Amino acid sequence: MNNPLDTNKAYQTYVDKKSPNSPIIKNCIMAFLIGGLICSIGQVIFSYCEFKGLDETSSGTIVSIILIGLSAFLTGLNIFNKIGKIAGAGSLVPITGFANSIVAPAMEYKSEGYVMGVGAKMFTIAGPVLVYGISTSIIVGLAYFIFNTQAILV
Amino acid sequence: MQKLGKQTIKFDNPPTILNTAAIVGPKEADGPLAKYFDKCLEDEMWGEKSWEKAESKIVKETVNTLIAKSGIPTEKIEYCFAGDLINQCISSTFGLRELNVPFYGIFGACSTFVEAMQLSSVFIENGINYAICCASSHFCSAERQFRFPLELGNQRPPTAQWTVTASGALILSKDGNGPFITHITSRKNC
Predict the structure, then answer these.
(1) CA-CA distance, B122 to B133, in Å (whole number)?
(2) Which pLDDT belongs to residue A4?
(3) Which residues in chain A touch residue B190, judged by CB atoms under 8 angstroms apart?
(4) Could you tell me if A91 lies within 8 Å of chain B, comparing CB atoms?
(5) Which value, in Å, is the radius of gyration of the alpha carbons in chain A?
(6) Among A86, A77, A78, which Cα is nearest to A38's?
(7) Which of A4, A87, A104 lies nearest to residue B152, judging by beta carbons?
């Protein structure tokens, strides 16, 4: 009799051969176009704010607020996931994707209550990103602190 | 009842599948099997307020359809084996609560239905007359349980699977004209 592990391996190779791959080139182009469009919208808002006389920091904050608000709104209308299906990383990587990843679980878990549902599950998707993002920034900060101090000592 | 080898049981009085019922959602109704289902829903919520409540309602209506089709009064049904994909088997529990039949909630993911049939076959072999087996799932509730919220804008690979929105039920009986369950074999966890 065949070794079951060999059979599993053979089956996996067979499945990999048969299953269609994701259309990577098409996905990349769509991500580039829609991601670029989102960033262009951000730039338009930014330039408009500067034109109206705001400084760079305030303009950047306003861009973030508007894009987050817009994607949260579109998530609520069930439109964002349709954009995300086409755009992929294009709508996921900008701040819009982050807003979507918070609003989507908040909506979905509402049926489990406001504390144990919305409150507890809101960060199920964004949580890992925050944990490792903040952890990495601590490590980078420590490294900066150590090397900077040494530089001063030298 | 006789044990054959390490995984198989052979029944002396094979139980019969007396009748079956199935209610499915809109995506399943689009497929080639639509004409075999008892009811195809147009609305995945079925007038309920949450996906879980909708799934419970699908379970409840499927079992009611089954009982109506088989013509066996509810009082004669002695046990019910049912399962779904949600925490604590709530879809089955709440769907079958008003049925007032002793209930075993089981979990076997894809194998839940066959698991229910195997367990109830053993019960019937040992003197029970009628038992109901039921399984259910709902795309929207399962998606949240195992994958991502529905509103999340992510891309699915072309081979991504789609959890069925449906419930199926059957009634097993001691006497009948078949189809029979003559043997059951469960898998070893190798």
Answers:
(1) 13
(2) 66
(3) 4
(4) yes
(5) 22
(6) A86
(7) A104
For B73-129, what is each residue's pLDDT tens digit?
A: 999 999 999 999 998 999 999 999 999 999 999 998 889 999 999 999 999 999 999
Within an 8 Å CB–CB cutoff, is residue B158 touching chain A? yes
As assigned by CATH, the class of the B15-150 domain is: alpha beta
Tokens of B29: 């109704």
Torsion angles phi and psi, residue B173, rounded to 5 = -135, 155
Which residue in A88, A103, A107 is closest to B155 by CB distance?
A: A88
Which tokens sit at A29?
């182009």
Task: Say if the Cβ atoms of A20 and B158 lie within 8 Å.
Answer: yes
Q: What is the percent of chain B where pLDDT is above 90?
A: 75
> Can you tell me which residue has the tokens 């991504």?
B160
Is the Cβ of B160 closer than 8 Å to some Cβ of chain A? no
| B chain contacts of residue A92, beta-carbon cutoff 8 Å | 153-154
Q: Residues 16..75 of A with a Cβ closer than 8 Å to B: which?
A: 19-23, 27, 75
Complex ipTM: 0.72
Helices of type H across B88-128: 90-96, 112-125
Per-residue pLDDT reduced to its tens digit, B50-61? 899 999 999 999
CB contact under 8 A, A88 and B50: no
Q: Positive or negative, the Cα torsion across A134, A136, A142, A144?
A: negative
Q: Domain locations in chain B? A: 15-150
Lowest mean pLDDT among A18-27, B23-32, B113-122: A18-27
